[in-house]
Amino acid sequence: MEKFSFFFFKQKTAYEIKECDWSSDVCSSDLGRVFPRRVPWRVRNIDIAPTIMELAGISKKIPMQGESLVKMMEGEGSDRPAYLESLYPKLHYGWSAIRGLAADGYTVIHAPIPELYKWEDDPRQTHNLADKKTDLTNSWIKRLNVILNRIHNPVLAGLSQENMTDEERRKLDALGYFSIADPIEGTFTGIIEIGGINPASMKFFQMRFTRALTAMADEDYEEAVLLFDGLLKTDPENKWLMLYKGTTYELNSDMENARAAFLHILEKDPEYIYALSNMSWLELKEENLDKAESYALKVIEINKNDAEMYTLLAKVEAKRKNIEKTKQLLEMALLIAPSEIDPLKMLGTMLMNEGKMLEAKKLFENAFLHAPDDIAVLHSLGEIRLLTGDRAGALEVFTHAAELDTQSAYEIGRASCRERV
């Protein structure tokens, strides 16, 4: 069977859409029909599917928005207009999405501080022309809003959602299908500050936020809390900042303040899944099994495919000595996320204890594939390889474990393995 792969673009920035971040290293194929090339034209992600279909010889049964890139791959092409959208600010910080249009030699980005770039003169988009060319910027924003008006149809949206369950609606919203807001008037005279922070002027916020995260990583938890408090004074309703503050308390073993921070979020938004998840882990640490279970079940009610919460429920049942229920929950977690390390280790250990070595070995081999430097995985895999007759393989992982942690007790396992080999 012939293989083929494509590399289209990557987005580097979190808060702004930059045309230069959408690389035109488009076309890479090993079907033999066309050769890899970098093209000078701008491309779109909606062109990926038609391209793959044409190369694979699959005819289109229904109309598609995108156009095949095969002609570009063969050296013929031109720039294609593209609608641009970044949902990162909306999904991660509760701000508005940032949208733009790239066509006819210009890229306009509609944000609280708009941006306009000319491709030919500024291919890396480092010189914003919006202040100098206000009329042109406004005309491009109006052109963008014509597109948004076509997309935004509340009547059709209401009809399409009429028979959806809440779960289906949440999933589609998470994918961005409900993200189109009412078109904004074609002007940029005012700067909209969402949540107290202007997302188009993020340098001060990003600097302080980075300092807070660095303090967390350095285990300077008191400093991190002070920095998060400073940010919260600017944006007191920011749930994400409050979540980080609560996590900092938890890392510092200050469970009382951590719990208060997470509960404060849940008072405002009872379905804020990150706070629910953090509360479930906090209660598990505190041995409040019923509460941990309750929060985890709320998360699963919102997102039934949360493998982490099934793993947490398995740990709750393990503490209750309910072995079969523990195994069922771990199997459910792995059904959702087959490479998740915690359930692989837990279930593998349980199977080892039951003498089911080959089944356990399969799980630990999978864990090793995805976490080759996990000391616990290395130790368990070494033991199980040894017990199943793979002495050379056992020596390999014990040696690697000792290289990672030379002062650990796993050195004994390495020496024991050497003797047996």
Description of the structure:
Helix 8 runs antiparallel to helix 9 (239-251) and helix 10 packs antiparallel against helix 11. The chain has 421 residues and is mainly alpha-helical. The chain has a 4-stranded antiparallel sheet. It is 54% helix and 5% strand. Strand 2 and strand 3 (106-110) form a beta hairpin. The protein has 19 helices and 4 strands.
**Assembly classification:** single chain
Compute the average pLDDT: 75
**Residue share in helices?**
40-55%
General form: globular
Distance between the termini: 42 Å
What Rg, in angstroms, do the CA atoms define? 27 Å
Estimate what percentage of residues fall within beta strands.
under 5%
Largest sheet: 4 strands, antiparallel
Strand segment count:
4
Strand order of the largest sheet: 1-2-3-4
The secondary structure category is mainly alpha
Query: How many separate helices?
Result: 19
Order of helices and strands: HHEHEEEHHHHHHHHHHHHHHHH
- List low-pLDDT spans: 1-31, 178-203, 417-421
List keywords for this structure.
421 residues, mainly alpha, four-stranded antiparallel β-sheet, 4 strands, disordered N terminus
Task: Lay out the secondary structure.
Layout: H1 48-55, H2 70-73, E1 82-86, H3 88-93, E2 98-103, E3 106-110, E4 115-118, H4 134-151, H5 154-161, H6 166-174, H7 203-217, H8 221-234, H9 239-251, H10 255-268, H11 273-285, H12 289-302, H13 307-319, H14 323-336, H15 341-353, H16 357-370, H17 375-387, H18 391-404, H19 410-420
Antiparallel strand pairs: 1-2, 2-3, 3-4
Helix pairs in contact: 7-8, 8-9, 9-10, 10-11, 11-12, 11-13, 12-13, 13-14, 14-15, 15-16, 16-17, 17-18, 18-19
